[in-house]
Structures are given as C-alpha cells and as structure tokens.
What does this fold into?
Amino acid sequence: MYSYTEFDDKFLAERNAQFRAQVERRIDGSLTEDEFKPLRLMNGLYLQLHAYMLRVAIPYGTLNSAQMDQLAYIAERWDKGYGHFTTRQNIQYNWPELRDVPDMLDALAEVKLHAIQTSGNTIRNVTADHFAGAAADEVADPRPVAELIRQWSTDHPEFQFLPRKFKVAVTGAAADRAVIKAHDIGLRIVERDGQQGFEVIVGGGLGRTPMIGKVLYDFVSADDLLPTLEAIVSVYNVLGRRDNKYKARIKITVHENGIEDIRARVDAQYALIRSQFTGVDQQMLSRIEADFAAPEFKTASLAAYESAYTNDPVFRAWADTNLAEHRAPGYAIVSISLKAHGATPGDATADQMRVMADLARRFGHDELRISHEQNVILPHVHRSDLPELHAALKEAKLATANIGLISDIIACPGMDYCALATARSIPIAQEIATRFDELKLEHDVGPLKIKISGCINACGHHHVGHIGILGLDRAGVENYQITLGGDGTENASIGERAGPGFSAEEIIPAIERLVLGYLDLRNDPSETFLQAYRRLGLAPFKAALYPETASKDQANAA
Ligand code: HEM
Ligand code: SF4
It folds into this structure.
C-alpha cells in the first residue's frame, strides 16, 4: 500500500486548512452559496436533495483496516451511522452538516484519505481491478501505475478545468474487472516480447451517449505512459467541446473527430512534450512499486476448509459464489456482499465497516478493496481461515452468498438522495432482490448482472448491465426502461433497449417474466443469461417481457 511522504501530509493539511476557512466564510454569510459552490466542489462536497454529500476517494479501491475503521468513525460521528460505496470506488456520506465537513476532512487526512478531485472537471479518482495484486489471471498489479497516475493528476495545473470530468481505470489482467472500456481512458497492462506495457483505450463512457472505448495504442511502454497520458488529456483539453455540456466528454471528441485524427494529434503533442519526462516518473514508479510488494503468504493445512466445505451447506454455497482464484496456493479472494436481500446496494453501517476492518486485520494481511460493483473484497485470505471468517461475517449480516447473482445489483442513490434523479433506484433493487430470494431461484439462474440508474447520467452503469434498468420521469410518473445484453467486461457491449418502459408497479413482475423466460430459453444450466442473449438476440426476451404484444403479433400472423 502506498505510504505518504511528508510532502503528501503537508499538502493535505494545507488544503484542509484552506477549505476550513472557506466553510467559515460560508457559515458567517460572507460567501453566498453560488460563490461557495466551486470551492466546495474542489473538495468533493455536493449539495444534494436533502443535505450536503461528501464524496471521498478510495484510490484504486484499496484500504487498510485503520482507514476502514476511520470511515466507520466518520459515519458514526458526523453522519447517520452508515456510508455508501459507489461504482467509482468512492464512499459517499449523505448527511454531513456543513460545519462538520472540515473536521471530517481532517479525520480522513489522519489516515491519508481525502476528497480532492472527487468532483469537478478534473481527472477523478483513478480506479483499478478490485482483485489487483491477488488475481490468478493477472499480468501485473495495476495499482502502482494507478498511484503514479494519481500523483501526476492531483492538482495538475493544466487539468483543473477540463471540458468535463475525466475518468481513468486500470487493469493488469486479461479479464476486465475495472470496466476499462467505459472510461475516458482505460489502461490494460499487456506483455509483448517479454516487455510489459499498456494497451490504451480512449473515449468510452456511459451517461447520455453511451460508448465503448476505442484502442488508441495497442502497446505503450512503461516509460512512455505518462507522456502519452499527458498528450491525450492536453489534446482533449484543447479540442473537447465547451459549448455544450452534453457533448463535452472525450467520447464525443473521439466520435466527432475520428480515432485517426485524435491519434495524429496525440502523436504530435507527445513529440512536443516527451523530453520533459526525464525519467523522474520512472524513479517514482519503482519507489511506489516497493510499497505494493505482496504480503508474505503462509502455508497451512486445508483440512478445516475442506471439512467445512463438505459438511456445511451454508458455507459451501457462500464459498461457491463469493470466492475467487488467488495467485498464491491455498489462498482465496473473498468478496463480501453489501447486497443482503432487501438492503440498499453499497451501504455499510459503521459496525459492519469495523467488522470488515477487523477481519482484514485478523485474516487478510490488513487489506480491503472496494469494488465498482459496490462490494468489499478481502484480497488475501488463506482457505484455512475461511470457516472462522465466514462465521464472523454471518454474525454481522455480511455473509450473503450472492456475488455475481441476480441480487448482487448495482444501484445509484436515485431519487432517495440525488438531486438529478428522475426516479428511484434503491427500492427497485431491494424489491428485485427480495422477490428472487422468495422464489429461491437465484442460484438456478446463475451469473446475471442487473444495474439500475435513477436518471440518464448512468451512475448505476445500467448500459453495461446484462439487464439494465433506467428510471425516467414520464409526466410526473416514474417509468423504468429496460436494456438487455450490456456487458462491462473485456467483451464490453452496450445494452439494447427492449421496448416501452414499465411503471414502478410493473417493473418487478416484468423482470420476473424476463428471467423465467431465460430459464426456458437457455440450452442448459451452464448457458448464462448473457450467453443466451448473445445466441438468440432480443426477440425471444422481448416476447417474455411483453407477452400481450407477443400474443397479438402471433394472432396477426395467424
Ligand atoms: C448523489 C450524487 C451524484 C450526482 C449529483 C451525480 C452526478 C453525475 C452526473 C451528472 C453524471 C454524468 C456525467 C457526464 O456524463 O458527464 C454522472 C456519471 C456517473 N456517476 Fe454519478 N452522481 C452522483 C452519485 C453517484 C453515485 C452514488 C455513483 C455510484 C453508485 C456514481 C457513479 C457515476 C458513474 C460511474 C458515472 C459515469 C457515467 C459515465 O461514464 O459517464 N455517481 N454522475
Ligand atoms: S444516475 Fe442520475 S439519479 Fe443516479 S446518482 Fe447518477 S445522477 Fe443521480
């Protein structure tokens, strides 16, 4: 894990002192809300439907136990006892009082966390594969380079007022667990002729105009990465549209100019600035890499694990869904579900955060990760510790065995918190999860990703959900539009709209029909929803969703 230098500590302390003075001036009335707005947004403070909201960055999703404990403390002391983990590896506090925010930021700084560049038209929190450093299929740990990019981009003087926000995601594995193709820049560590370098993808994004990113370069060496990124962002800074907020993201710049034109411009800019990168970045990178050395893995007997797996069906069900392959023998990656059936996706109480911190300390080499799917990961747990870990998770209501299944839903806060929402998302997620729990079909249905957004901004990633749900406002009534076949992995695709939307009352039965339809359509239980969709296309799924229209069509054809 990256250890802060004296410079980092001083930088945060000064920044917090500056913001404290700004907050005081807002409270005593010498700043209006309009004057205060750009200042608060530079420090991750939004004004939401009911209250301020503070968005804290969790760089590349990595936390240690002390940091998680502090997030719990902040939730309890200054919020309502819980926090919301988001799809960008941030945590959001929904109820802070303005006067408390400087203290919250100081408490974060104590554990080297902050809210800088979690808002505004800057390079946002750099995200990464949540299995980084642990996954069996990894070429290299993406976090050192994500940290380098964070240091390069934080308060970068040229990139504080980009045309729009800018998001970078990095993965070090062939399997994409960081949705790199739906980011402004997606980076994948690849190997060529024994050398590690980067595939660079640009112009992906969701929101109003969803797009899958395009390959700008298939191989950039480690030495050339920062100058290349600097060239890309500079080109975007000049060329990106500032006349229309909805056309401002780099995906539109790439779309309007074409990838060849963008490549030529980036090449030219790169040639201009390359000499400024004298190798200091590479020295920094090797220092950072040392901070991310893998922990010392132990060897231990697997007897306890094997016995629990054979004799305890609850443990077995959990192990089958919530564990992933680790690179070290005897180890597993544990995903802790924040999606208990009927719970708010991504929310954790202060007590739950403390339990997870404690378990990471006892069994997990002091490491936790936040996933873009709004769950928490313990990346390094020896299998011999899993029965004890599972028992502790059960007690804290954190042992739901549903990772990757229908109730492991991503949902944005929607109308329950968000000022931009056009519909609710949380209750829809809760009702779908509860319904499928009642039906006891979850495990039969198998891998299925449902993603829900409360408006077109797509914070809930609905476009890349196998089933995407978009909440809209139709003449004052909530209406839910379904997209099908989206995928946020290395085979990324944007979902297709299935047809007319459903009311809040109709949406749960509609999802049920759709999923039951899939059970009838699949070749056999090993064919997932997405595979069946890709084999059969929209029509049979549409027929399951809109049975009346389908039977009318049949009658007309007869
Ligand atoms: C409650 C306060 C929030 C506000 C005001 C907000 C606002 C927005 C807006 C305006 C966009 C569209 C930006 C654009 O297209 O340029 C956006 C995108 C996004 N937001 Fe949020 N959001 C909020 C909460 C969240 C939460 C809780 C999450 C995670 C669950 C999230 C994750 C994202 C993601 C991943 C995108 C990316 C879509 C893209 O690729 O363009 N946001 N948000
Ligand atoms: S998708 Fe819309 S409703 Fe949901 S958090 Fe984003 S801006 Fe708010």
Observations:
- The longest strand covers residues 185-192.
- The mean pLDDT is 96.
- DSSP finds 19 helices and 21 strands in the chain.
- Residues 412-414, 418, 420-421, 453-455, 457-460 surround iron/sulfur cluster (ligand 2) (CB under 6 Å).
